[in-house]
Amino acid sequence: MQADIKNLSEEEIFAEVLKLIAPFNKKNIAITRDTSFSSDLDLDSLAVMDLLAAIEDHYDITVPLNILPDLERLGQVSAAVQKIIQG
Amino acid sequence: MDLFDKFNSVLAMKARLPFEDGNPFTLCMDEVISQTEAIINGRRTILAGTNNYLGLTFHPDCIAAAKAALDSDGTGTTGSRVLNGTYSGHRTLEKTLAEFYGTEHAMVFSTGYQANLGMISTLCGSDDFILIDADSHASIYDGCKMGNATVIRFKHNDAADLDKRLKRIDPKAGRLVVIEGLYSMLGDKAPVKELVAVAKAHGAAVLVDEAHSMGVFGATGRGVVQEEGIEDQVDFIVGTFSKSVGTIGGFCVSNHPKFEVLRYVCRPYLFTASLPPSVVASATAAIRIMGSSADIKDKLWDNARQLHQGLSDLGFELGAPVSPISAVIVRDQAGAMHFWSQLLKAGVYVNLAFPPATPAGVYLLRCSLSAAHTAEQIEIMLEKFAEVGAALGILSETHLSGADARTSSGQPGQGVAAATA
Questions:
Q1: Do A64 and B152 touch (CB under 8 A)?
Q2: How does pLDDT run across A10-48, given as a tens digit for each residue?
Q3: Residue in chain A nearest B135 by alpha carbon
Q4: How far apart are CA B401 and CA B360, in angstroms?
Q5: How large is the ipTM?
């Protein structure tokens, strides 16, 4: 993990999540922190896991599948990732 | 709030689907004629989706062994392995398995699902890491959910991706890499040599699920790990009796010196009733046949090549190179449903598989072959696939979507494009 990513704000991480979610946004809807994976984006658990893998590789961190049950909305992803980065 | 409201989207999907002839979720075999035929909806139907790879469900030795055990030991054990549920037959089965695999230890579970659930959830504790292939079977995902370990998923069949993810983990932690020999949906084989080499370079333990590869790969049918010559590198092999062995049950074999302690701590082993004596006896007979009948395996592969080549010549997009599983890829749900029910009407039963059981959002008409199929039956399957595929316009459609999948690398569909390449 690069040392400087520890200082990333939740806003900066969310901006990155927005970029990484783009290929999954098949319906081209406007995405906010409240956007839901299942009801808004029609994504199943496999797609959410693919998104997590993209985040792992972007920041070179481990994002365990164990956090999946807590991720329903996109804002929860950036918050969880920030928590992981800060250890 | 009705507890069932959470299933409204599933009910809506069910209502939208075209169920012209039978519902894949509630289909009933009215009468089973043989390993390869049954009466379904009043019609004689060729079964091309049973995972009965060696056709042992009707082998006379297996049936005789089951009948004898039924007469001598009764219909069930009515108890867990650790209470009253271990009979001499269970011991014999475990000894037979250990001899078949050439391992020190073998432990039998009541289903293959429970074998994965038990092994994965018990081996890995809260300080440990489990690394699973993205396309893992539900029993592997559920085993991860049941335990307390940190779960990491790596890209399907990708040794470099596994390596990258192992590098991020503290090498002092306990780590288990879980892969399958042959993936059941698309029928693609794992590059076990590369994956196991990466795992071992990091000092991680390896568990290989050979559910669909036992009896199918390897000189004596031990699976992909035997075929690739890396049995000494693999710590745990999990398998099932409900495919090539032709009955029900699961197992794990291993040479780990402390393996037997699992009989004291593995909850899916401890807290369920043991297999009934007749099942244990037929499984034992089947494993003995498997170890000594290369001709059955050869017939299976002849059949597999015939179907795979035939479907491919017709122009269908298939999920993987030749194996006893040939999965025809269809891109839309309604098309897959129509195809499945029209095939059934034409007298051919295959499996209809939906996401998330399938990778990359594809719908599959999944065929699995048996050594018991005749060349004539496979010709009929191919004829019906051609007729229905043409009538529904699926043949030209799969050509188009195949081209689409190849141009979409970088998108979520790339796993399948890679598998079909």
A1: yes
A2: 999 999 999 999 988 888 999 999 999 988 998 888 889
A3: A46
A4: 13
A5: 0.91
